[in-house]
Recover the amino acids of this structure.
């Protein structure tokens, strides 16, 4: 191979990188010119340096951080082979992660679609439900009237590393009984649904992974309004009694935001459901 | 739900985000406090704003740029469902891309491994080769003595969008003839191997996609030195004649960097091979 010197502009053109990138590589000691003119400060590169840029560009292409590229430069061919094998594992991890995200999006979409399909508000209907995994914790005197978004702060913190996704709603559980006033209802548990069915380990001591079992649920949904809450509950009870159904679960209350716009009043959709047989 | 006001510190804790992130979201108009005290400039957030942060965090988790999150906030539930479906497609594209990178790494590794397995330098041996796709162009008076890395600049530019990876070596093609001196050799073509076998379209007019066909190749490798070049070529010829083989291809010359270290003299490994039957 013939040796030749190139200006930074020539080098950039030959290597198909920007002059800015070459200056940056020089600054971070990743790839320095072979020679700098002490009078003009002009950088000059050798023809043989082009292969170094091949390595840098190739490793950049597979997502290697520039600091790692520095190490890779100094490796023997077999060292470089091991290094690339390690990079391959990182790519596999990225793919596994994206696949998990994909699965979670699928579940979220299914739940969003279901909510959009709710036949009509303030009417009772029957719904076949798939099993849902939830994280639950004791409700400590929480009730429909004093529940806040902040009540879910600890649950969200626990669910976040499991699901990534948070906007599939939150819930509460209370016994199925003949309540007269909304003030009579005290939650036993509050919960957050999780998206994946993966093993859930290392939860805080006051939380537990549970299932909302698959089955037929009697179901009513409404845009949350404190005045209408107990009325919807009574509709649910009446439906069950009229149809002589046997209730086989607690009441699950699930709510989710209807709008995320900062310019709009908060609107929550609230669902009440019990499993029947 | 009960409405409450939180300080930025409380809000950060409740939402499991940093105070810095909340300040940044405020600055870029993504998520602003419900109320700012005009005397102290302290920010206050409403409890109901927590669900907005759920959306922001969820979309961040699936890789949505913050600018897009702004749009998503204003969407109806069904608009949001469509939006998430679009995000899903982007994730699929990322996965497809990573899969391509993975396949390219596999091919690069195979080629690197093969080079590491070269039984010994300056000795002729036979090798079964798989088919390789190359991009070639006319050599325009290039010969072993005047070839530079820069000679490959145009080819690299064409190969880069196809393969991403560049450091699998470069090559030249010349007819199999009885050359006496290195000066007698003129390349017909120079080429760059590509990694994938995908359709190669839109090459510059002076380039062409070609194959180095699978088959048995007579093969010699050496660390490049101009003095030894012709000697290696003669060894190759002698082996073919001694074994009364029929040559069924041009001579393929392939070279690659042995070291990418900026502190070392450039070392190239050079391979000469012809297909025989």
């Amino acid at each position: 191979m013939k040796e030749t010197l190139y200006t930074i502009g020539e080098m950039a053109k030959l290597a198909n990188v920007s002059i800015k990138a070459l200056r940056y590589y020089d600054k971070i000691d990743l790839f320095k010119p072979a020679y700098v003119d002490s009078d003009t400060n002009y950088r000059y590169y050798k023809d043989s340096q082009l292969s170094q840029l091949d390595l840098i560009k190739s490793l950049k292409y597979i997502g290697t951080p520039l600091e790692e590229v520095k190490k890779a430069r100094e490796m023997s061919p077999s060292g470089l082979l091991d290094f690339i094998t390690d990079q391959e594992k990182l790519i596999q991890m990225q793919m596994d992660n994206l696949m998990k995200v994909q699965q979670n999006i699928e579940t979220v979409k299914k739940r969003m679609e279901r909510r959009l399909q709710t036949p009509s508000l303030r009417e009772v209907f029957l719904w076949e439900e798939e099993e849902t995994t939830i994280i639950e914790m004791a409700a400590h005197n929480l009730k429909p009237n004093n529940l806040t978004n902040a009540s879910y702060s600890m649950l969200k913190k626990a669910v976040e590393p499991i699901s990534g996704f948070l906007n599939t709603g939150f819930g509460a559980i209370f016994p199925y009984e003949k309540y007269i006033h909304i003030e009579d209802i005290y939650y036993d548990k509050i919960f957050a649904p999780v998206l994946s069915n993966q093993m859930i380990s290392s939860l805080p001591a006051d939380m537990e992974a549970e299932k909302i079992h698959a089955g037929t649920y009697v179901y009513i949904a409404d845009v949350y309004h404190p005045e209408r809450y107990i009325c919807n509950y009574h509709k649910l009870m009446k439906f069950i009694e009229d149809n002589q159904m046997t209730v086989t679960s607690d009441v699950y209350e699930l709510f989710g935001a209807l709008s995320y716009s900062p310019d709009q009043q908060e609107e929550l959709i609230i669902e009440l459901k019990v499993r029947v047989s």
